[in-house]
Amino acid sequence: MTTTQPGADQSVSDAVTAGSHATESARSGLSNLRGPGSGEVDQQRVATVVGAALEGIRSAIREHEVTYEEFDAFKRWLIAVSDTGEWPLFLDVYLEHEVEKVAAKRQQGSVGTILGPFWLDEQARLDTPATLPMRDDEPGTPMILAGQVTSTDGTPLAGATVDIWHTDDEGWYSGFAAKPPAGNLRGVVRCDDQGRFEIHTRKPAPYTIPLDGPTGQMTQAAGWSPWRPAHIHLLVAAPGHRTLTSQLFFTGDPYLGNDVASADKPELTLDPQPTGNGDEIRADRDFVLERET
Ligand code: DHB
Ligand code: FE
Questions:
Q1: Which of 100, 131, 166, 206 has the smallest number of CB atoms closer than 10 Å to its CB?
Q2: Mean pLDDT, consecutive 10-residue segments, the chain of 293 residues?
Q3: What separation in Å is there between the alpha carbon of 46 and the centre of ligand 2?
Q4: Is residue 234 packed enough to be buried (19+ CB in 10 Å), middle (13-18) or exposed (0-12)?
Q5: Interhelix angle for 14-34 vs 214-221, to 10°?
Q6: SS3 assignment, position 115
Q7: Measured between alpha carbons, how far is 256 from 206 in angstroms, rounded to an integer?
Q8: 93 lines ligand 1 (CB under 6 A)
């Protein structure tokens, strides 16, 4: 598995490549996904939430007697997060899981988890059974992910779509790392009239956050693991239903339970089995969506 620099033809660091693309994606794409929001700012809400966040930092300074040297290093680190475009990476690794848990308290249907910084809009639209766009010699274990999308009352959801994206066998995301071509191992699969889908792909590999950027450097400076267990990202959508944002993990992955993004959940683990067709494996997973209110 590769965790260092991609090809020598790449002149900027992993962190700057992934970070600037993630910043651009966050700027342009996410309002399509999550809706525009009300745009309203409630003064009391700002005072409460921002006040609590600032007080958390002030109390860390008091309790641990933070020095000017450390304060200045913190300033430089924040500037570096901006310069490398790593805000989406940093926020999605260290904070999104808490926001997701707050949202999940009010949700029915299949368990979800964080979106992360690497979703891209406007990927290949495919009909089930579908093979994700991949290179002729795409490395890794051939894998089938199959299942059915239903409503919370059990109705199969014709017109459901499964937007899927994941790393290649070396832990790289297309669109963010230099190596995989645009659109590699990404697609939006349209289910059949029973909400069923069958997606042919490659098993993804565990992933480290970029180690040469400020998020990775801070992680390593603290002695924390920079790894995410191998995972498949999904947005499962159907007309009239809330879109499910989820990820699927793999039994036996060494990084399960120690995910730098704290996004793995026991309900989200797959246990793929050999199909008998070469080294191909298959996992079945159904999704239940709640009706939009
Ligand atoms: C990051 C990477 C991921 O693959 C993910 O799902 C969440 C966060 C990151 O590098 O920030
Ligand atoms: Fe990811």
A1: 131
A2: 38 66 77 76 94 98 98 98 95 97 96 96 96 97 98 97 97 93 97 98 96 96 97 97 97 97 98 98 98 89
A3: 30
A4: buried
A5: 110
A6: coil
A7: 10
A8: yes
Asked if 144 contacts 151 with a C-beta cutoff of 8 angstroms, the reply is: no
Choose which residue among 207, 225, 265 to substitute to test ligand 1 binding: the one with the highest number of ligand atoms within 8 A of its C-beta: 207
Euclidean distance between CA atoms 159 and 263, whole angstroms: 28
List the structure tokens of 206: 């565990």
Closest alpha carbon to 206 in 258, 162, 153, 271: 258
The CA-atom distances, in angstroms, between 78 and each of 92, 99, 113, 196, 274 are 16, 21, 27, 46, 47
Ligand 1 centroid to Cα of residue 191, in Å, is 27
Q: What predicted TM-score, i.e. pTM, was given to this entire model?
A: 0.91
- Domains parsed from the chain with CATH numbers: 14-37+86-289 (2.60.130.10)
Residue with tokens 């040297």: 69
